[in-house]
């Protein structure tokens, strides 16, 4: 496999233990540029552990993580970020009372001048924020408004645009639609597609196959730390994803138990 054809990111039989607890075992999948890999599973499936390995919070105990076809071993979130792997967690790492443009550049503020005369370049920060959000199709009324005044979907969208602007090659989104209504979830999925179309490899972590299937290109289904398969979109329907997550036979048994008796 050449560097040109290698996935941006690849997992090969990755495993992670916490003492005697097997959190992940034998997990394999790929993340390619311009595609969305959805990681699905119910609570306790191992999604959070997988995020921490990809983001450099924890190292895997078994298997391999490859970046551009070469083995990678991230010892910290900073190492993963420097390699182009950005993670947007559910809390979004934003300060609600700060302006949108201040949050956009939080920790990476542009400056002008030199030495003791160096100052935060607010005009440039506002201009870049407005331009980058517009490039993602995000219409923000006023970049000076506190980020806390935005809807949940809008805040997610700002976080996605921020990660793309700062050079993310792989964008990991941790349950971005979990606390949103139908309309706001649709807004976020639209911006996930925007990031994908700009050549970013997206990892969408979710427990909702209805959100995953429309935007996903590949689907990794986890159950109690183990893989139920990694499927291209052509090979799995939304209903099949739901059955896999629910355990198939267990879902059929539950449906039978809940049926009203014939009268």
Automatic annotation (TrEMBL):
SMART domains: AAA. One of its GO terms (molecular function) is ATP hydrolysis activity. SUPFAM superfamilies: P-loop containing nucleoside triphosphate hydrolases. Pfam families: ABC_tran. Residues 9-249 form the ABC transporter domain. Keywords: ATP-binding, Nucleotide-binding. PANTHER family: CARBOHYDRATE TRANSPORT ATP-BINDING PROTEIN MG119-RELATED (PTHR43790), SUGAR ABC TRANSPORTER ATP-BINDING PROTEIN (PTHR43790:SF8). This is Monosaccharide ABC transporter ATP-binding protein, CUT2 family. The lineage of its organism: Bacteria, Bacillati, Actinomycetota, Actinomycetes, Geodermatophilales.
């Amino acid at each position: 496999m050449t560097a040109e054809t290698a996935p941006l990111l690849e997992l090969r039989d990755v495993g992670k233990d916490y003492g005697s607890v097997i959190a992940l075992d034998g997990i394999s999948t790929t993340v390619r540029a311009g595609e969305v890999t959805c990681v699905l599973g119910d609570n306790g499936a191992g999604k959070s552990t997988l995020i921490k390995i990809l983001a450099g919070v924890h190292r895997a105990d078994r298997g391999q993580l490859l970046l551009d076809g070469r083995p990678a071993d991230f010892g910290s979130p900073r190492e993963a970020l420097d390699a182009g792997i950005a993670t947007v967690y559910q809390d979004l790492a934003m300060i609600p009372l700060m302006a949108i443009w201040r949050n956009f550049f939080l920790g990476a503020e542009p400056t002008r001048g030199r030495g003791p005369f160096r100052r935060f370049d607010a005009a440039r920060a506002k201009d870049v924020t407005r331009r980058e959000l517009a490039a993602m199709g995000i219409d923000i009324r006023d970049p000076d408004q506190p980020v806390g005044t935005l809807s949940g979907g809008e805040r997610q969208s700002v976080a996605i645009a921020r990660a793309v602007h700062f050079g993310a090659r792989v964008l990991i989104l941790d349950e971005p639609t979990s606390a949103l209504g139908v309309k706001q979830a649709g807004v976020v999925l639209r911006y996930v597609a925007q990031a994908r179309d700009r050549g970013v490899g997206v990892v969408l972590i979710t427990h909702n196959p209805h959100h995953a299937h429309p935007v996903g290109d590949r689907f990794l289904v986890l159950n109690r730390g183990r893989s139920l398969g990694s499927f291209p979109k052509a090979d799995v329907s939304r209903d099949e994803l739901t059955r896999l997550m629910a355990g198939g036979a267990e879902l059929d048994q539950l449906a039978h138990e809940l049926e009203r008796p014939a009268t």
